[in-house]
Amino acid sequence: MKATMSRNELLTLHHGLETNLKKFTGVKLAYAVAKNTRTLSVEVEDYKKAGKPTDEFKEYRKTVYDLNIEHCLMNASGTPDPGPKGEFQFSDAETREMVASKVEVLQDENKEMIKAEEEKEKEFAMFLQEKVDIDLHAVTLDELNDTLDGSLVSLLVPFLEE
Question: Domain coordinates of the chain in residue numbers?
């Protein structure tokens, strides 16, 4: 059967099915869920490839991260000691300003790449909102069993036939 949904809804459906795969019992239901999960997995992998940042941008982010790690406060286990909002903390304002200044230089040096990546992220967010048709293996109400709760049944709605 053909199902129409946004790509975001497809991602959510895939995650829900994959997370709860073992909870769907009965041969026909388990088969349909497994088959649909595999179908959705192909789409999800393609979305990941389409939205993947460039290697240059990943290297830029790693450089910024490493710069912060080099100068931030560490806890007893040698990992960064995050602030209340998860941000890096520094021993004093001078260190924080020095790191911020170096990050700003990196941003200036890479502003075109950063801008291109931000545009790509916006385009990808719009892409995920678009509706798509996808062929899914249908299940009927007769194939459901009494062990399914409402949240599990709601996962089946896109490929449930009456």
Answer: 2-51+128-161, 55-127
Taking residue 32's Cβ as centre, other Cβ atoms within 10 Å add up to 22
Tell me the per-residue pLDDT of 130-148, one tens digit each, with 9 for 90 and over: 999 999 999 998 888 877 8
Token pair belonging to 48 = 């990941």
Distance CA 154, CA 4 (A): 15
CB 89 within 8 A of CB 72: yes
On the question of pLDDT at 162 being above 80, the answer is no
At 5, list the tokens.
């949904």
- By C-alpha distance, which of 14, 9, 8 is closest to 40? 14
- Predicted pLDDT at 118: 97
Q: In whole angstroms, give the CA distance from residue 95 to residue 73.
A: 10
CA 145 to CA 80: how far, in whole Å?
49
| Residue owning tokens 């300003």 | 97
